[in-house]
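[recover] target loaded
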């Protein structure tokens, strides 16, 4: 194990049961409806064995719609999401990843898919959860730190000293 900051990434995990995701057999219409219903801009895609295979974004869907100039919601049922080119590769992290690796990945994507040693999807970690934890930790540290004598009290200005 590396020296320095260590924390189990599962602390931040939103488990699969609480995550909206797509099956690789879903249609374009199903993807659009699920994104709209959950108000998400991207969803993980899982294969029939529950393994993470990628992430579909609104941008991917828009590019597909642009290609299919005669696309209707009805015929979108006939387009499997596996036929939609995904512009960005959204990398997952392993359940045993170190915080360092998780944070590096989270800087590039809004959520990080988490997989087990067999590539089976177990949930996501959102960038929001990581930032919220850091903010809460910072606030807690600020509350416990002693204020210097020169620290202005509420309502007083530095010029009053």
């Amino acid at each position: 194990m590396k020296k320095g900051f260590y924390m189990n990434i599962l602390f931040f995990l939103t488990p699969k049961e609480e995550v909206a995701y797509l099956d690789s057999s879903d249609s374009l219409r199903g993807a659009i409806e699920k994104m709209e219903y959950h108000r998400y801009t991207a969803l993980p895609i899982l294969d029939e064995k529950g393994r993470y295979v990628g992430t579909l974004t609104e941008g991917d869907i828009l590019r597909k719609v642009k290609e299919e100039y005669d696309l209707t919601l009805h015929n979108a049922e006939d387009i499997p999401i596996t036929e939609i080119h995904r512009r960005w590769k959204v990398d997952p992290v392993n359940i045993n990843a170190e915080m360092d690796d998780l944070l590096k990945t989270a800087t590039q994507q809004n959520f990080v898919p988490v997989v087990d040693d067999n590539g089976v999807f177990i949930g996501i970690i959102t960038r929001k959860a990581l930032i919220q934890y850091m903010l809460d930790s910072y606030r807690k540290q600020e509350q416990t730190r002693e204020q210097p004598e020169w620290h202005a009290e509420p309502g007083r200005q530095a010029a009053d000293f």
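[recover] notes: The beta strands are 14-15, 22-23, 42-46, 52-57, 93-94, 111-115, 121-126.
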